[in-house]
Amino acid sequence: MKNSNICIIIPTLNEETSIGKVIEEIPIKILEESGFLVSTLVVDGNSSDDTTRIAREKGARILLEPRRGKGRAIRAALEAVDADYVFMLDGDYTYSPTYIPEMLKILQKFPVVLGSRLRGRREKGALSKINYVGNHILTLIANILYGTRISDLCTGYWGFKREVIKNLNLTMDGFQIEAEILIQVSQKGYKIGEVPILYRCRGGKAKLSGLRDGIRIGKYLLSQKFRS
To answer: In a designed cystine with 197, which of 87, 120, 134, 172 is the match (CB 3.0 to 4.6 A)?
Structure first.
């Protein structure tokens, strides 16, 4: 693992209240002492606040993606990075980068790892009851349709080896991006490891519309399985 490159991708849209804290939590010293070269890429969806200024001041590289949508941001970032290990997590403080060293250990056995909120812990109010139940249902549907054994389909916390990134051909613009990642990973035969994580209450306004986006993700899972 020594002298390997790690890139941490953080998609943002008006996250000035949280992006600085997220970047500060990246365990750069621990990773560098283990021999890794670490970079942070904030891919911003045309924020109207100070998100990009704060991220730049904290040492992150900025990639501007003027078109809105989490999927677009992730796709733009993955096309721009060239690293041995790539991690992606949201910029709203719900996910802690401190799990990256543990996730790296899993990546020595699996080509893909996810941070599971449903196997881990959740701060009070971080995940509503309808979202909690909906995530379980969507995960069950995904496991049945695609033969996977994951516990949290809709997590925004993923890690990949370089080979996996090079073999993804993502097309989704919105919150279906995690489902698309799972589908392509499973279809290409990559096994997925998991790390239980703490899911925190977000800073700022939520972008995801629970029921509506959940239905979209469910329809997408079914459409990709049964498309002609």
So the answer is: 120
